[in-house]
Each structure stands twice: as C-alpha cells, then as structure tokens.
C-alpha cells in the first residue's frame, strides 16, 4: 500500500489456486470483480422502509417482470432470496441519480412533499444540482425526499424494477503468469472526496470494497484509513477468508510476438499499471534467452 494525493494506492495479490485447479491468465488480460454495496447504504435503504434485521433476512420470492433503467434484468432471478441479499449484492443502490430514476421515484414517492422534492430536480441540470455536488447516492436522495416519511413496503418491488444491477469492474492485471503462475496482482486507487460544507466523505464503490478487504486481511484499524464498511463474507459466507467474486476477462490487446519489436508505452495515471506485467514478462524471457 502506498500514498497518493487525497488517497491510497493498493497493490493486491490474489491466490488463483482453488479446488486443485489454477486459474489461467495472461499479462494483458483483466480481472473482473463483482462489487458489494457498503453496509451503510444497505442500512439506509432498510431504514426508509422501517425494516428490522428479521425482515431483511426473511425469504422473499422475486418474479422478474421487466428491465432496469440500463436495459439489464434487475435481479438475478434466484428464488427465494432476501432483501438483504438484493441490497448488498444485486442492486446498484449507490450509482448516480438519472432523470429517468427521478421521474419514477417521484411517481411512487411516499406523499406529496416527497414527490414535489423529487420533481424539482427533474427540471434542473443534474450535473450542476445539489445531487451531483453532494455526490448523493440513490438511497441518500430517497431519504432526503421522504424526510421522516416511510416508503411503503409495496414500493420495494418498484425499487427493484428500476434499479440497475451491480456491474462488474475491470482491473488491468499487473503481474505476469510466467513470473507468478499461482497469483494475480492488481493495483487500485482509493480516493476519498470530501463533500463541501458537510462531514461526509465519498469513496468509489469498488475501491471502497477492496479497501475494506485490505483492512480486514491486514487487521488494520479503519480509524487510520478512509472509512468504508462492506459485508465481505458474501451471501451464505461464500467468500469469507479474504476471497472475492472475480473472473478473468480475456483481452485482445497483446504485445508483439517478437521481443525485438520496439515498443513505446504511453499512459496517464493508473493507466501505467499493466506495463508492470509486460516488463516482468519481457525481463524473465530475456534472462532465459527466449524470444517472444
């Protein structure tokens, strides 16, 4: 772990051996990681509907009947599931607010005051509104709109139908399988943005998740680091013990076959990270007198 302006730079290595098999990858590939919503946002949504822990963990059946705003199916179609599972691992409750979402939330809001509040932003430029300036998540917007009103239980089905699914996040691999055949390394920046005139800080969803994983694995005190809290064990504790949901995405980008081909690397910021793997590979092959 290193420090950068306004944040941290995490270098993380993951063991690719599982069940007697080793995941195969190339230096130019990407590691696709599944995101997990932070506990604070899940608790916030639960408070809007006045759910207790028992309600969050109770089995419910979801029958998909449409698409989310991004065109994807809003739920995985696994039944039964729980409200807690949907909020932690399936629905993108932390993403940016869109005009389409404002319209739908206003239509199903808990009362005229909330509807008026949400409709006010529908006709503003979102990029310059309080929503964007304060980096409000979807749950935080719903809380501000409702004030002390409770969102009705039946509107949770509406929330499921309009919320996009959590997306994969892709990291360039910064290790070479020829040097480290049983591990994959990535580098991630954890930048904390302070919201003006508030005591809130903002950390990206995936960066916050990986940072939480880093804190737990190294048994560090989070009071010394940017705050982030995630349910790291996953549904039914399937990814406990410092694991994560991930897979390899093959890339068409490849270095020239011949190591005699001149190469100029150009990148900005964290874009330089995959070059580490390229250099590792070329250095190893060169030391063994192998071309390519």
List keywords for this structure.
10 helices, four-stranded antiparallel β-sheet, Elongation Factor Tu (Ef-tu), domain 3, 11 strands, NADPH-cytochrome p450 Reductase, Chain A, domain 3, 292 residues, 2 domains, alpha+beta, elongated, three-stranded antiparallel β-sheet
Describe the SSE topology:
Layout: E1 2-4, E2 7-15, E3 17-18, E4 21-22, E5 30-34, H1 39-48, H2 53-57, E6 59-60, E7 81-82, H3 83-90, H4 99-107, H5 112-122, H6 130-133, H7 138-146, H8 155-162, E8 168-172, E9 183-194, E10 201-203, H9 205-217, E11 246-249, H10 273-287
Antiparallel strand pairs: 1-2, 2-9, 3-4, 5-8, 5-11, 6-7, 9-10
Q: How many structural domains are formed by the residues?
A: 2
What is the straight-line distance between the termini?
32 Å
Radius of gyration, CA atoms, in whole angstroms: 22 Å
Q: Which structural class matches the secondary elements?
A: alpha+beta
Give start-end ranges of low-pLDDT stretches: 70-76, 223-228
Shape: elongated
Query: What is the CATH H-level superfamily of the largest domain?
Result: NADPH-cytochrome p450 Reductase, Chain A, domain 3
What is the CATH class designation of the largest domain? Mainly Alpha
* Beta-strand proportion: 15-25%
Number of beta-strand segments: 11
- Please work out how many helical segments DSSP would assign: 10
**Overall pLDDT:** 79
> Would you give the CATH topology of the largest domain?
NADPH-cytochrome p450 Reductase, Chain A, domain 3
Q: What CATH architecture of the largest domain would you give?
A: Up-down Bundle
Q: What is the N-to-C order of secondary-structure elements (H for helix, E for strand)?
A: EEEEEHHEEHHHHHHEEEHEH
Sheet with the most strands, sense and barrel status: 4 strands, antiparallel
Give the % helix.
25-40%
Give the strand order of the largest sheet, numbering strands 1, 2, ... along the chain. Answer: 1-2-9-10
EC number: 1.6.2.4
Organism: Penicillium oxalicum (strain 114-2 / CGMCC 5302) (Penicillium decumbens)
InterPro entries: CysJ-like_FAD-binding, FNR_nucleotide-bd, NADPH_Cyt_P450_Rdtase_alpha, Riboflavin_synthase-like_b-brl
Protein name: NADPH--hemoprotein reductase
